[in-house]
Fold this sequence. Notes:
The protein has two helices and four strands; from the N terminus they run βαββαβ.
Amino acid sequence: MPKTRATAEAIRDEIQRRIRTSDELDGDCRNAGAPTPIAADPTANNGCNWTITVLPNRIAGCDSLVIRITQEVMLQYDLVE
């Protein structure tokens, strides 16, 4: 299945949407910030042409949820530059 091509802003917005609608941890992580994608070499990044380096607006206990959601989006989206 081909990946959806999107800007860094659109990918970040999708990650944020998924965080806000998540019921995990009883919704306590809904205010966690979405990371901004940056370009990466897909051959060194499991086939994904973007990665993240910072988790903004961190909420204690929510990092694993934000990372998991980001990894799901990485499988579905390619970054357009």
